[in-house]
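Q: Could you fold this chain for me?
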Amino acid sequence: MSSTVGSTDSTAAAIHSVAVAPPAPPSVHVRAVITWLAIFPLVAIGMILIGPVSESWHPVLRAFALTVVVVPLAVYLVVPRLFGAYASLRRRNARARTHRAAQETQGPH
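A: Sure. Below is the predicted structure, expressed as structure tokens.
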């Protein structure tokens, strides 16, 4: 039984010995895509919703009214959630890579 415990301990040591650096911040390209994924649907839905009410408005007034709603929603609600989801996905992928690396260093059973 001690050999089983020893192999479990060595597996845990291998997993912990792999240096886990904090993830790098997302690239400017990833940030741009995530921001666009937040803004586009909000603008599209906003245009549909205010369209009937704002038909006679000057286009600048329509843009102002739309951005008064869309920008705070995006900045305070949607973008942080999308970045959180992105970070969670990156952490999950990093854990999977670490687990695979630990299995490879352990060798065949």
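A (continued): The mean pLDDT is 84.
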